[in-house]
Q: What sequence folds into this?
């Protein structure tokens, strides 16, 4: 009989493997990044093959999916709908995409009109796909359209790999430039009100986000070993991080660190997590509930707490390089691109420093000289 086990790979995810013995040879084969139920189902299939004396490896869905479609068995006319169905089966069996990515692709491909789905692959051109992207983008932002462009490009490249096409029509379609969205931050009143309304684990998430600027994914991965009481900081591990870089973020005050440490002693159940959430979904959902109840703008999300932290650092006069380091940005250019914006009052204050005076430097109290030349 067979057995299944998991193995952690470089990106931190778990890959299931099945081990069995066939004709005296022990084999171990990867099942992929699948759920335990799917791995158990594959184990049952392997056991059934062994009972029947068949080679489980020759009949595995994974092996069949990796094989290039037999030109003899292919329908003479492969439509886009056929290609999408085959691609979906291929990535599902191979476990090449996370469930959330697979769901996103299916949702995207579900918007392709029937007139395009029924068209043969070899007849689909740039004009057809551009029209679909234009229709797709009428109710979506440019970032989502760019993702749809990337998804469809992947499908056509896959078709080329499996000899269904010789050239991708997506190659000549330019990617939609992603417009820089205005950074949405919480006002001081909203931030204080959010802390008052928040409760339990959600309060912890909000408190850490506003005082340390961590992403929601970083927050739920925090353990008590990451809270360094000696130097009053929180260490963010590089593993699983968006930019794959670790950093230490100091607490803005000793009181903030004392508040976080008090949670550990108050936890009724022992846990390594500072904020015991299994996924960021619950954080985002609770923030949406509060936002709707308070009538705040739709553009605000839980990530706005991080934007608030970074923006306040910048408006407080912290050097841009220091802000980038505390925020965990991959480079200073990222901080400059998304956070270099100023309030009108800040601009007026900066311009007022250019108050030229007679024979002196800007700001010195001497006789003013008009820039037109008249005293």
A:
């Amino acid at each position: 009989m067979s057995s299944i086990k998991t193995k952690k790979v470089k990106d931190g995810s778990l890959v299931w493997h099945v081990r069995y013995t066939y004709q005296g040879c022990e084999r171990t084969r990867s099942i992929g990044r699948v759920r335990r139920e799917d791995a158990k189902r594959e184990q049952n299939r392997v056991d059934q093959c062994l009972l029947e004396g068949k080679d489980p490896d020759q009949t595995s869905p994974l092996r069949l999916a990796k094989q290039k479609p037999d030109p003899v068995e292919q329908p003479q006319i492969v439509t886009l709908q056929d290609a999408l169905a085959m691609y979906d089966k291929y990535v599902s069996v191979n476990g090449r995409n996370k469930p959330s990515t697979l769901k996103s692709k299916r949702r995207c491909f579900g918007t392709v009109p029937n007139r395009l789905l029924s068209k043969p692959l070899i007849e689909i051109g740039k004009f057809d796909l551009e029209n679909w992207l234009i229709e797709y983008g009428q109710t979506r932002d440019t970032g989502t359209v760019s993702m749809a462009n990337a998804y469809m490009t992947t499908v056509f490249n896959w078709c080329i790999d499996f000899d269904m096409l010789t050239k991708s029509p997506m190659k000549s379609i330019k990617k939609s430039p992603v417009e820089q969205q205005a950074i949405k931050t919480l006002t001081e009143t909203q931030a204080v009100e959010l802390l008052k309304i928040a409760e339990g684990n959600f309060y912890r998430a909000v408190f850490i986000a506003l005082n340390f600027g961590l992403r929601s994914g970083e927050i739920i991965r925090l353990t008590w070993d990451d809270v360094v009481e000696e130097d009053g900081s929180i260490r963010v591990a590089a593993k699983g991080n968006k930019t794959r870089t670790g950093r230490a973020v100091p607490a803005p005050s000793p009181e903030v660190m004392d508040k976080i440490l008090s949670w550990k002693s108050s936890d009724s159940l022992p846990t390594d997590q500072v904020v015991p959430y299994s996924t960021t979904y619950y954080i985002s959902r609770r923030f949406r509930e509060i936002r709707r109840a308070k009538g705040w703008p739709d553009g605000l999300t839980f990530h706005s707490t991080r934007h608030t932290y970074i923006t306040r650092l910048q408006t407080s006069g912290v050097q841009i390089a220091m802000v980038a380091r505390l925020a965990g940005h991959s480079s200073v250019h990222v901080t400059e691109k998304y956070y270099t914006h100023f309030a009108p009052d800040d601009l007026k204050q900066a311009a007022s420093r250019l108050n030229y005076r007679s024979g002196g430097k800007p700001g010195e109290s001497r006789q003013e000289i008009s820039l037109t030349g008249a005293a």
About this structure: Strands lie at 3-8, 14-22, 25-32, 227-228, 233-236, 247-250.
